[in-house]
Amino acid sequence: MRDAFFLDPSVTHLNHGSFGAVPRVVAEHQRRIKERADANPQRFFRVELPGLKAQARETAAKFLGVSADELALVRNPTEAVATVLSSLAWQRRLGPGDVVLLTEQGYGAVELAVRLWCSRTGASYDVVPLAVDATPEQVVEGHRVAMSRVVARGDAVRLVIVDQITSPTGALLPVEGVCALAHEHGALAFVDGAHVPGHVETVPPDTGADFWTGTWHKWGFAPRGTSALWVAHAERASVSPVTTSWNHGEPFPLPYDTHGTDDYSGWLSLEAAVSFWRDAGGFGIGARAGALLDEGSAVVAAAVSATGMTASPGVPVSPAPCLRLVALPEGVAATEETADATYRAISARGVETQVVPFGGRGWIRLSGAVYNVPADYERLADVLPAALHIVASEAIVP
């Protein structure tokens, strides 16, 4: 499968989960779309593009088991979160005494967006503590305690944002239970499913969310900038895109189709991406990746232990199929700065992987993509000891 991508063969790629990799056949499809647009821009944008966007939205909706009028195409989940927060602020549904609830394992950019809109509206936010090895029951109970704490101080939970698959730790969270709990407290629920499309089978309304977002560039093989925002029927009329353009005033989701003159070729390549995903194994990709990662993460963990530096055994109890977490030694990559230094030390040795600080220590988050093989994890295990010793001794990292 490596030949199906443009990936540099001299590098070992173990971080598909962050930015994905566009298959050659999908990139070729996107190129043809761009050529079609450049051959006659006037006709393409004025006559052809609206229908092509509708087809792309239909493809996304069918993949997620919903109707095309239930979801909008957006550029990424970060935009989706900003869209919902700005809409709630505009409607004055966020204000003093209102609380947005996040999880400790949530995506950093989402917290930044929440922090911004809380500062603008007078609302506040709380973070639910979530250990790396929290069980599904502990996740729900943690939210229950946090919501009770908000109510006890006289505030109201207005919005709960929870990751379906966590970015830093690659854990599957029980979003159905969290959404149900949010509704019990009269709050809206937003499920961040950035890692979901093509990874785990999900029908957004079945999660119980009022808002759900996911992207195809991670595990669905689409070009970057191809994501969706699903909105429950009761909220569709009240959520507006962050860009006001020509479809303003049209019913959901049409206003999202026009955010100005832009390159929409990623959206229009979604069908080609879904076709590649099916040919590559569909949801069976996760089963293969899980087996590969169970062995690969053990090899990497053994390499960490061989350094003689202490590492924590705690890992997610419900890992996503295509992601695994390996603990780094204590004191290594425990902060954003030292995690970046650790990443650079590993990258300089020809291996790309994700290094994350969480819970006061550092971790390697491994991906299992269709192009990965056991030798990839063995390669990481080979270069890891030297990289860790360099970081631990505070040597200059190239």
Attribute tags:
398 residues, 12 strands, 2 domains, Aspartate Aminotransferase, domain 2, alpha/beta, 11 helices, globular, seven-stranded mixed beta sheet
Which helices and strands occur, and which strands form pairs?
Blueprint (H helix, E strand, L loop, with lengths): L11 E2 L2 H4 L4 H16 L1 H24 L6 E4 L2 H14 L7 E6 L4 H14 L2 E5 L7 H17 L3 E8 L11 H10 L3 E5 L18 E5 L11 E5 L38 H11 L3 H22 L17 E5 L8 H12 L3 E2 L1 E5 L2 E7 L6 H19 L6
Parallel strand pairs: 1-10, 3-4, 3-5, 5-6, 6-7
Antiparallel strand pairs: 2-8, 7-8, 9-12, 11-12
Question: In a few lines, what is going on in this structure?
Answer:
The protein has helices spanning 16-19, 24-39, 41-64, 77-90, 108-121, 136-152, 175-184, 270-280, 284-305, 336-347, 374-392, and strands spanning 12-13, 71-74, 98-103, 124-128, 156-163, 188-192, 211-215, 227-231, 323-327, 351-352, 354-358, 361-367. It has 398 residues and is an alpha/beta fold.
Describe the structure.
- By secondary structure, the chain is α/β, with parallel strands linked by helices.
- The chain folds into two domains: 28-276, Type I PLP-dependent aspartate aminotransferase-like (Major domain) (Aspartate Aminotransferase, domain 2, 3-Layer(aba) Sandwich); 283-392, Aspartate Aminotransferase, domain 1 (Alpha-Beta Complex), CATH 3.90.1150.10.
- The chain has helices at residues 16-19, 24-39, 41-64, 77-90, 108-121, 136-152, 175-184, 270-280, 284-305, 336-347, 374-392; strands spanning 12-13, 71-74, 98-103, 124-128, 156-163, 188-192, 211-215, 227-231, 323-327, 351-352, 354-358, 361-367.
- Strands 2-8-7-6-5-3-4 form a seven-stranded mixed beta sheet, sandwiched between helices. A three-stranded antiparallel beta sheet has the order 9-12-11. It has a two-stranded parallel sheet with strand order 1-10.
- Strand 3 (98-103), helix 5 (108-121) and strand 4 form a beta-alpha-beta unit.
- Helix 2 (24-39) packs antiparallel against helix 3 (41-64) and helix 9 runs parallel beside helix 11.
- The longest helix is centred in the N-terminal third of the chain and has 24 residues, at 41-64.
- The two termini are 31 Å apart.
- The model has no long low-confidence stretch (mean pLDDT 94).
